[in-house]
Amino acid sequence: LRYETRLQGYSYYRQHFRAMFQKRFAYFFRKRTFFLLELLFPAICMLLIMEACMMIPVPKEQPKLPINFQPYYSGATDANINVRNIKA
């Protein structure tokens, strides 16, 4: 089948939307339980995910830790610590 004129632009999208809407409407009347599951299941999953996100503790301000070289210090001699600063 060849068409002399093809729909373009707004009328094409309107026809496509109407066809998909009619298809979904026919599917709804054939299988109502599946349609309800398509609506309810994602909503219930989203609520459960949001509830789980509310249970996760929020990070708090941590106390500052002192810098202590005691593990590297032996007796009366100071330790040599080599530090290299590398910029990415």
TrEMBL record:
<keyword id="KW-1133">Transmembrane helix</keyword>
<feature type="transmembrane region" description="Helical">
    <location>
        <begin position="34"/>
        <end position="58"/>
    </location>
</feature>
<protein>
    <recommendedName>
        <fullName>ABC-2 type transporter domain-containing protein</fullName>
    </recommendedName>
</protein>
<keyword id="KW-0472">Membrane</keyword>
<keyword id="KW-0812">Transmembrane</keyword>
